[in-house]
Design a protein that fits this description.
seven-stranded antiparallel sheet, globular, 150 residues, alpha+beta, 4 helices
């Protein structure tokens, strides 16, 4: 059994973006107001992006104690984190075995501070980069790992 708290809530295509699992809401409330607001805006973009390209049943959960989103079928997880170690940034994390961080650095080099292979940090003092976040959700929620044949 995992030592961290875990829950999952599925957001269907017709569910409201205001429907949020109490544990996720509690996590956002534990962050400073600017980080919580920033994360809420990103959450809304993730949900809207999933609906726009028919990712269906986006699952919200706490993974390693942090907010995370993933379609029930296919795709890969996006996770958000705020920390007192970097209080002016919000981190977004992808699977370290994916090429998503590299792809985002190629497509949106100025929107994030990248720590390859899995972390992208956004400055809380800047507006949420909507095109970059929408693109990240689109490629992550549709991600299929290609395994070379040997």
């Amino acid at each position: 059994m995992f030592c961290c708290q875990f829950f999952a809530a599925t957001i269907g295509i017709n569910r409201s973006m205001t429907d949020i699992h109490p544990d996720l809401a509690h996590k956002f409330q534990s962050w400073p107001a600017n980080a919580a607001q920033y994360a809420s805006e990103i959450r809304a973009l993730f949900i809207q992006s999933a609906q726009d390209f028919d990712a269906r049943d986006l699952e919200e959960s706490l993974k390693w104690g942090e907010p995370a989103w993933r379609p029930r079928k296919g795709g890969t997880t996006l996770r958000a984190s705020w920390s007192t170690k970097a209080p002016n940034e919000l981190g977004l994390f992808v699977d370290c075995k994916s090429d998503l961080c590299v792809r985002m650095q190629s497509d949106f080099p100025d929107d994030f501070r990248f720590v390859a292979p899995r972390a992208m940090y956004l400055p809380l003092a800047q507006p949420v980069p909507t095109p970059a976040i929408t693109h990240l959700a689109r490629i992550a929620f549709r991600y299929k790992r290609v395994i070379p044949v040997h």
